[in-house]
Amino acid sequence: MSDALSQLDDAALAKLAVRDDHAFEALVNRHAAGVHRLAANTVGSGAADDVVQEVFIAVHKGLKGFRGEAQFSTWLHRITLNACYKALQARQNIPFEDVLEPPAPHSPVRSSEQADIRDRLAAALQSLPQEQREAVTLREISGLDYAEIAAVTGAELGTVKSRINRGRAALREWLTQAGLKP
What we know:
CATH architecture of the largest domain: Orthogonal Bundle
Number of domains: 2
CATH class of the largest domain: Mainly Alpha
Helix content: over 70%
Distance between the termini: 40 Å
Protein name: Sigma-70 family RNA polymerase sigma factor
GO molecular function: DNA binding; sigma factor activity
Keywords: DNA-binding, Sigma factor, Transcription, Transcription regulation
Strand content: under 5%
Largest sheet: none
CATH superfamily of the largest domain: RNA polymerase sigma factor, region 2, helix turn helix motif
CATH topology of the largest domain: Rna Polymerase Sigma Factor, Chain: A
Domain RNA polymerase sigma-70 region: 27-92
Domain RNA polymerase sigma factor 70 region 4 type: 119-171
């Protein structure tokens, strides 16, 4: 990414990306990791690459219509979630072992323990209602603040806070019953 493009904020870069492939590439480079992380935690790591590709195709097609009334990242998260739901509908079954990316293993025993925890956490996330899972994932995985989550989901701020609180409580209970200390 050139220095000039890297200095631009997302809104300016998005305007420029309508007609400049280098600006679009800069947007992709800036946001691809976050989109992939959200996709991997929603549809599984095996399907995340396909979702990321669909997201950036949709972004490229939709840039002309992006008016900048919302933050680019909010618009991008909504596109990502829509692509994730489309992939989930096409697949119907999510293998729990693919939901979370494992950290680099340090030992075979630790790797096995991490895989077990990852499987349990994935199952716990899947047990949540969609609205709670979406809110918790956007908060804990994507790192969005409550106002950004409200903008992405179209829910009121209080509703977002409630969904996250209920989702966290349900995750804590599920994980405790599964023998883990959250």
